[in-house]
Amino acid sequence: MKRSILICDDEKNIRSGLAMAMELEGYQALTAEDGQIAWSLINKESVDLVITDLRMPNLSGEELLKRISSAYPRMPVIILTGHGTIETAVEAMRGGAIDFFTKPVDLDRLSLVVRKAISSSDLYAEHEKLKLEVEQLKARNRYDRIIGKSQKMVALMDTVSQVAPTKASVLITGESGVGKELVADAIHELSTRSKGPFVKVHCAALTASLLESELFGHEKGSFTGAVKEKRGRFELADGGTIFLDEIGEIDATTQVKLLRVLQERQFERVGGEKSISVDVRIVCATNRDLPKEIEKGNFREDLYYRLNVVHLDVPPLRERKDDIPLLMTSFLTQFNEENNRKLEGFSNQAKRALLSYDWPGNIRELRNCIESAVVLSRSDVVEVEDLPIHIGKAQNPSTVALEVGMTLAEAEKQLIISTLAGCAGNKTKAAQVLGIGRKTLHRKLQEYHIDEA
Ligand SMILES: Nc1ncnc2c1ncn2[C@@H]1O[C@H](COP(=O)(O)OP(=O)(O)OP(=O)(O)O)[C@@H](O)[C@H]1O
Ligand SMILES: [Mg+2]
Q1: How many angstroms separate the CA atoms of 32 and 15, rounded?
Q2: The domain at 408-447 falls in which architecture?
Q3: I need a surface site. Which of 164, 165, 189, 323 has the fewest CB within 10 A?
Q4: Selection from 23, 7, 126, 8 nearest residue 74 by Cα
Q5: Which atom of ligand 1 is nearest to the CA of 185?
Q6: Going by CATH, does the domain composed of 151-315 fall within 3.30.70.100?
Q7: Where in the chain is the domain with CATH 1.10.10.60?
Q8: Distance from residue 317's CA to the centre of ligand 2 (Å)
Q9: Which ligand is closest to the CA of 156, given by its number?
Q10: 211 C-alpha to center of ligand 2: Å?
Q11: Which residues belong to CATH 3.40.50.300 in the chain?
Q12: Which N-terminal residues, if any, form the signal peptide (predicted)?
């Protein structure tokens, strides 16, 4: 859709000159010969940017600017001034104009300023749309801390809501930073035990003997330092859920004891004889490949089958890149609030980089990256310079290398791949840019075996 620019000046030659210049740049130009006419056009037509003279009959440029700033605060206004009115122009900038030009207007600079303003208001609009989508997603999900609308995440959340109300043990696997703990939280929150305790144990953080007494408790005097009896985490979790994080790290003795809890729902404190029964739902997580650990003799197979009644595998971020825009937006909103900043979105370059990068540290890495960008940024959008260098470099090339000797088909394939990457995988957009229909694009993707990941 063509963007509309309203040019307002009482001198006919300036109006028509600027209108022609803007049309040559691909915009639709509207003109008005005084502020009054301009104001009624702004209220009637969809105007994306206003270029206005200051001294005009009926309604002055200053007054027009004032009205626009209060009714359409996002609409960019550029001021034109004759000689000797620079002070007024400075005043106008304070009133919210984005730039000013003295006549005769430097058309090259004007085009540049217009292009930048339009593209930043496009970015803003896109960001607003994504923010709305995040809100809608949160309203729809019963568990709103997990952001994601990719097929893989929707399927995962479906399974989560299905198994949460049961008592089945759940094993959550996935790379570091994919959100395993968040899924565990969701399982507890969505279960009938949500009012009961939710006890988390980071198994890797404790030595073998400490872990055993941490989980099952100990009697007074059972080992040096056990001056009092102590209730273990399983007892504390009675009536609720226990989350054993990094379950792949637990030692052989604790594995045996854990197996017994799963089989008989009973255990003894360290150094104790009395059997204790608890009603606890067990959720575990690991980023290890447990079947491999079983082969190596590090993990008991029988325990594995007991824990793995329901298996939830959280996919890495690179396999669900369509979640990135929502995650970016939601983290930006969050860190804006936390840091009292008002960043309005991401520059196109920054967006391309974030979408192209592979995210080995998954969502945790993305989250940290946005947090530091919000803190570091000096402009009103996140720029590629605000990202860590290795992520900023990840942008897809915006040019295609064509060499003589290449077939036409090969050239077409390269162009399609790069365009798709430039459009962040959005096929409708890519088809538009390429000037072909969506169906044609689909056919070509198949024909050239271009992966639709
Ligand atoms: N889908 C998501 N939506 C919003 N935030 C998420 C999502 N997934 C993960 N996060 C955030 O990313 C960070 C890492 O998530 P989490 O701690 O659950 O990962 P993990 O898989 O347990 O990682 P590790 O294996 O390193 O323990 C957390 O701050 C979490 O809130
Ligand atoms: Mg974790």
Answers
A1: 8
A2: Orthogonal Bundle (1.10)
A3: 165
A4: 126
A5: 18
A6: no
A7: 408-447
A8: 15
A9: 1
A10: 17
A11: 151-315
A12: none
Number of other residues whose CB lies within 10 A of the CB of residue 207:
9
- Determine whether domain 318-392 maps to CATH 1.10.8.60: yes
Q: Which two tokens stand for residue 450?
A: 């271009």
User: Which ligand 1 atom lies nearest to the CA of residue 175?
Assistant: 25
The fold for domain 4-125 equals: Rossmann fold (3.40.50)
Residues with Cβ within 6 A of ligand 1?
Answer: 146-148, 174, 176-182, 287, 363-364, 367
Proximal ligand: closest to the CA of 201: 2
Query: What single letter denotes the amino acid at residue 110?
Result: L
Q: Which residue's alpha carbon is nearest to atom 10 within ligand 1?
A: 179
The atom of ligand 1 lying closest to the CA of 147 is 3
State the sign of the Cα–Cα–Cα–Cα dihedral 424, 429, 431, 437. positive
Q: What is the pTM assigned to this prediction?
A: 0.71
Ligand nearest to the CA of 287: 1
pLDDT, one tens digit per residue, over 358-381 is 999 999 999 999 999 999 998 889
Q: What is the CA(176)–ligand 1 centre distance, in A?
A: 8
Residue range 174-210, pLDDT digits in tens: 999 999 999 999 999 999 999 999 999 999 888 888 8
Report how many helices (DSSP H) and strands (DSSP E) the chain contains, helices first.
19, 14
Neighbours of 429 (CB within 10 A): 15
> Which residue spans of the chain are classified as CATH 1.10.8.60?
318-392
Within the chain, all domains assigned CATH 3.40.50.2300 are found at: 4-125
Residue 314 CA: nearest ligand 1 atom is 21
Ligand 1 mutation pick, 153, 154, 181, 326, max ligand atoms within 8 A of CB: 181
